[in-house]
Amino acid sequence: MLHTIIKENAYQDSVVLMLLTNKVSTIDGVNRVSIMMGTPANKDIFGTSGLRTEELEAASANDMAIVVDTEDASKIDEILAEVDAFLASQATKESSNTTETARTWDKAMKLDPDANMALISIPGTYAVAEADRALDEGLHAFIFSDNMPIEEELRLKQKAHDKGLFVMGPDCGTGIVNGVPMAFTNVVKPGNIGIVGASGTGIQEVSTIIDRLGGGVTNAIGTGGRDLSETVGGITMLDAIAALEKQADTDVIVVISKPPAKAIRDKVLALLRTISKPAVTIFLGEKPTYHEANLYHAYTLEETARIAVELAKGEAITAVETEIVTPDIRLTPEQKHIKGYYSGGTLASEAAMLIADALQLKEGLIKQDGYILKTEGHEVIDLGDDIYTQGKPHPMIDPEKRIAFIEDAANDPETAVILLDVVLGYGSHEDMAGQLAPAIKDVIAKAKAAGRELAVIGTVCGTLQDPQDYKEQRQTLENSGVIVKDSNNEAVRTGLALVGRTVEEADKAIREVESGEAAPILEASDAMLNLLAKQPRVINVGLKSFAEAITETGGRVVQFDWRPVAGGNTELQKVLQFLNSYRAETADVK
What we know:
By secondary structure, the protein is α/β, with parallel strands linked by helices. It is built from 19 helices and 25 strands. Strand 10, helix 7 (200-212) and strand 11 (217-222) form a beta-alpha-beta unit. It is globular and about 75 Å long. This is Acyl-CoA synthetase FdrA.
């Protein structure tokens, strides 16, 4: 039976509500529970999960909506007590926080007139208006929020470009601005390599391998996954390359992207061929066969990092040879399939690419229901896909969905290999390896009892400086029976070796390439260069946990205590935004 509780004017950010949902779901007698703000989009999510009720319709965007499926009505009082206690603990934590807080843009800008970036992590429905306001205030915008119409992304990026500002995102999960982490980011040593990427965990995998190889990063500029689409046209990517070319501390430029539109890819390459600094590219899904003078093309994220470090150290570029030691695991004749369950979308894409290459699959790479590969019994799933995270915690925070997939795969007598990642850094679970370990031990033991050996192979994306203990996370996985490798590339190839497959790669020679694409002429603005040269001063519009990471690493932050205005009515918000812009323009004229 469904029970609905509406707590009026009790706004909390999405991460807090996800953690609260997890806590309430452990109460005996609770079949299902969902706790979200009463926005129209969230009401649709309630409906998709079968938890939409008549009482829910009265909730506004500022109201906390709790829908519980329980047969025991007496549990409601216990649930309410748990909710109140959790929210009280959050309030206590916030009161002890010394970060300055503002409820309006005017107050935020008064608290730090020198702010130069807004980090926006509110529901995507409302992110456009706040990004517009940030640009009007002369701030670069880092937009973690997703579900923004692509037409609005294009408009915002064109507006930013005209103002000499960056828009990073939307759906930008990671970034490093002069050593300060943005959103889900690892702690990477400073160095002379600059990264620009339309891929969150792609940036994380490359930057952490660079760190562990003894290199370091100046800046890592996330663009959002759609930046290299035909519609958006690579606006942020091209501006970032131009800025890194002019930035004094950057000696090597790395470009990372999931499969881009060909025309935009060609435009990016045309620009890279004109710059003075050596560059490395990886366009996931492409298998390059050559390098160019001063421009190197990688196939895997690990190869990208290795070439970048060699260039940064002034060393000769060598072919990447991944030495694979096949584990001593005896498979039954029926065990032929590889299953990959990833929290990182780009790591999942890389795994699918390598498996498809080794199996010489003509078809099978897909992007549907979270699957990136599903063919001939093999499957790779991005558990961070929207289908799995709507109203639920991201798999970097919550292991529940991944454990369920691992258990199902282990019960299949044809499964030979299970691949997984553990991504460390700010924003991620404090002990994800510890959360996964009991389930992994259990499935390996059950397979053995059934007369089968099961290979669980994983990688830890992280550095020794991360908030979690990198070595301890590796050791915890190994103690549970996981074969831990130094990179996702190595982990996938090890799994392929177990089923008798390899990925063939030839050495790449340097050759001249005639580009039919005219290179865009771009000038990096002073605002762009200043952002990359100094620790940022941030207005944090949304998740409070992001502010903590900024202050811990020396950045300056003002917390914008955001609430939906105009009752959450987006059309009325647009009117208010227009009036604010009009007033600002009128004031400038006077």
